[in-house]
Amino acid sequence: MSKNEQPSLLVVDDEPANLRVMKQILQEDYRLVFAKNGAEALRLAEQKKPDLILLDIMMPDMTGFEVCETLKKNSSTKQIPIIFVTALDDETDETLGFELGAVDYISKPVSPPRVKARVKNHLSLVQADVLRETRLQVIQRLGRASEYKDNETGMHVMRMSHYTQVLALAYGLGESMAENLLNAAPMHDIGKIGIPDSIMLKPGKLTDEEFAIMKTHPQIGAEILGGDDSELIMLAKSVALTHHEKWDGTGYPNGLKGEEIPIEGRITALADVFDALTSKRPYKDAWSVEKTMDYMREQSGRQFEPKLIELLEQSLGDILEIKAQFLD
Ligand code: C2E
Ligand code: SIN
Ligand code: SIN
Ligand code: FE
Ligand code: FE
């Protein structure tokens, strides 16, 4: 729904008196479209794409249940939330309505504050979904942008972000955090956008001066991702800022130590380095998994949290499956 316009509602009821009541309750806050039967409701839903539908159940010809079922089968109308408005108060009817995809029930005779509250509530849920989806898309595009700069294929980001998900689950952080990390980890090197190509693409070893510039990429990344308080973007910012910190406190940019480093940074650091070592870079050849694992073990308690190295060992089967799935 557009920002400057009132949201639009389609109100469906075979009884004109009921439509008038709804009009009185809702006309101040919404643009309203009315339908007196199921066929008209289907036509208007398709044509006007309302933000929400208030649907009577008991109607001649086509019941509200049938209207709902038809709308949910049509890809252009299936996402519109439907609230049933009904005089029926039979439990099984409510169950059927929810099974058909309705988001709510309001009983008749309707209470005006209840109608207003329910409509408002469901519209804001839709808006929150749209925002979440939009943020995820922006995040994914930013991830693509940083890959162009990095001279790495998108596969590095695919692999390392899936590694972070596996490790987050193994660590016991839960499905939802693991999925957020999967979506946030691709941002870890977004700050490389601010590093000159002459440094980024240098075939050989960086000078101290060049490396000092390279080491500003976490801070640049955090600035790019700052200023938004969504959970996902805050996580991405934290990952960008802390993925080069080391468990023993010798990392950058802030020399954080142990659990001062947020868990998302500890996990991303490990996933990033595992993938960097097993991949070819402009400045290095790919290492074997064996050589990489020797290095990782040797860095337990130095560069990496010991518990994470144990979990890497235990999850190595899954990790190698991901590696095989996203080959360069
Ligand atoms: P990157 O290529 O994505 O590497 C990420 C991290 O993987 C590195 O962070 C480092 O911790 C680890 N890593 C990568 N290759 C090696 C390696 O050959 N040996 C060891 N022990 N670790 C390795 P680091 O060192 O902070 O580097 C950050 C970024 O700086 C790298 O990201 C890369 O873009 C750049 N970079 C680092 N060293 C060089 C270099 O010698 N030449 C060039 N051209 N770029 C470099
Ligand atoms: C219903 O009885 O149909 C729903 C109950 C309610 O609107 O609170
Ligand atoms: C109510 O139904 O009692 C208030 C409105 C709502 O629950 O959303
Ligand atoms: Fe980095
Ligand atoms: Fe990386």
TrEMBL record:
Alphabetical UniProt keywords: Hydrolase, Phosphoprotein
Modified positions (4-aspartylphosphate) in chain numbering: 56
Pfam family, one: Response_reg
Gene3D superfamilies named in the record: 3.40.50.2300, Hypothetical protein af1432
Keyword presence, Phosphoprotein: yes
UniProt-recorded Gene Ontology molecular function terms: cyclic-nucleotide phosphodiesterase activity
Domain Response regulatory: 8-123
Annotated HD-GYP domain residues: 131-328
GO annotation, biological process: cyclic nucleotide catabolic process; phosphorelay signal transduction system
Transmembrane segments: none
Protein origin, superkingdom: Bacteria
Keyword Cell membrane included in the entry's annotation: no
PROSITE patterns the UniProt entry points to: HD_GYP, RESPONSE_REGULATORY
Annotated protein name in UniProt: Response regulator
